[in-house]
Amino acid sequence: MFEINRMFKKKFTRRDFLKYSSSLAILLGLSEMYVPQIASALEQIVSKKQPVIWLNGAACTGCTVSFANTDYPSVAELVLDRLSVKYMETLMAASGEVAEKALEDAIQQFKGKYVMVVEGAIPTKDDGIYLTVAGEPFVNKVRKVAEGAAYHIAMGTCASFGGIPAADPNPTGCKGLKDVIGGTVVNIPGCPAHPDWLVGTIVNILLFGKVPELDQYGRPKLFYGRVIHENCPRRGGYEQGRFIKKLGEELPDIEGCMGAKGCRGPVTSADCPHRLWNSGVSFCIAASAPCHGCVEPSFPQQSFYEPIPEVAKTIKAGETDQKKSAIGTFGASLGGALAGAAAAAGGLYFANEKAKHKAEKTEGV
C-alpha cells in the first residue's frame, strides 16, 4: 500500500493514486507527461491541508451546489481530505455564535495561509446595510477576511463582476470582489460556475503555490482561453448561414446556428463545449438553448434572444444574398418567358406573311 492512503483515509493503491493524478492533469489541461510531477507534488503536500474560508454574499447559492457536484476529485475527497474548510455557511453544521467563533479562530490561526472564496455579489451602498451576517455588514466581513488571505477567489459571476444582483438599477450598490478589496483576485465566473473551474484553480494553487495565468478579466486562461464559438457543435450552421429563427425548431440535415436567437458564443470565452455540465452530459447550446454569455462582465446587462452585432451582420448579409439570388432567378425566368413570347410572336408573324403571299400569288394566276 502507499503512503497516500492518508490522503483519503481509505485504502488507496499506487495505481489508484496515479489514476487520480492523471485526472488532475486532465482537469488542469496538462498532458500525461505531467502525471509524475503531479504525483510527486501531491506526496509532498499530502500532510498539509489547505485552509479555506468561504463567504456567501448576495447570490442564489447555485455555485455552492455546482461545487458540490464536482466529480474528479469528488467534493467529499476535496473538502474532507485535501482542503480544510474552516467556514462555509451553506454546508457547515455550526451556526450562530459557534460558527462566527470558528471564523474568527480561523482568521487568527491561519493568517496569511488560507484561501478566501467569495460567492455572491457584495452590497456596498449605505455602508452595506442591505446584507448583514451576524449583525455585521457583509462588506465589512469580506474586507476583514481578505486582509489575512493568501489567495482571493471570486466564485461565480456575481462575486466576479456583480452579476444579477448588480444589474440596473442596482439599488443596493452590489459589486464584485475585486472592486471591493482590489489586488489580485482570481475570478471564476459562470452562472453558476462549473465545479472544475474552481477545483482546477485550487489544485493549481496546491501544486504550484501560485494562481494560474489570468486573462484581462482575472479569469484563469486554462478554462477561459477560447471563445465558445470555436468549438460549437452548431458552427456548421453558422458557416452555411443557416440560423434557427424560432426556439424549439430544428433545420433539416444540419444543426442550425442559434445566433438569430441571441447566442453569444462568438463573444464568450469558456471551455463549456468540451468541459460539459452535469457530470459531462451537455451544455447550453448542445441542449438547443443559446449561450447567454454568463461568464462575461456584461452579463446580464445585454439583450436576451436578440442577435449580437457580429451575427446580425452575417444574418443580414445572408438574407441579402438570398434576395439577390431570388431576383436573379426571377429575372432569368422572366427573360426566358419574354424571349419565348417574342419567338412565338415572330413565328406567327412570318407564318401569316407567308400565307398572305401565297394567297396573292394564287389570285394572280
Structure description:
By secondary structure, the chain is α/β, with parallel strands linked by helices. It has 3 domains: 49-223, 3-Layer(aba) Sandwich (Rossmann fold), CATH 3.40.50.700; 226-307, Irregular (Cytochrome-c3 Hydrogenase, Chain A, domain 2), CATH 4.10.480; 310-365. The chain contains 14 helices and 9 strands. It has helices spanning 5-8, 14-27, 35-45, 62-68, 75-82, 96-109, 138-147, 157-161, 177-181, 195-208, 221-224, 235-239, 272-275, 309-364; strands at residues 50-56, 83-88, 115-119, 122-123, 132-133, 136-137, 151-155, 174-175, 186-188. The strands form 3 sheets. It has a 5-stranded parallel sheet, with helices on both faces. The chain has a two-stranded antiparallel sheet with strand order 4-8. A hairpin with a 2-residue loop joins strand 5 (132-133) and strand 6 (136-137). The termini are far apart.
List its traits.
disordered C terminus, two-stranded antiparallel ribbon, Cytochrome-c3 Hydrogenase, Chain A, domain 2, 365 residues, 9 strands, 3 domains, alpha/beta
Task: Map the helices and strands.
Blueprint: H1 5-8, H2 14-27, H3 35-45, E1 50-56, H4 62-68, H5 75-82, E2 83-88, H6 96-109, E3 115-119, E4 122-123, E5 132-133, E6 136-137, H7 138-147, E7 151-155, H8 157-161, E8 174-175, H9 177-181, E9 186-188, H10 195-208, H11 221-224, H12 235-239, H13 272-275, H14 309-364
Parallel strand pairs: 1-2, 1-3, 3-7, 7-9
Antiparallel strand pairs: 4-8, 5-6
Helix pairs in contact: 2-3, 4-10
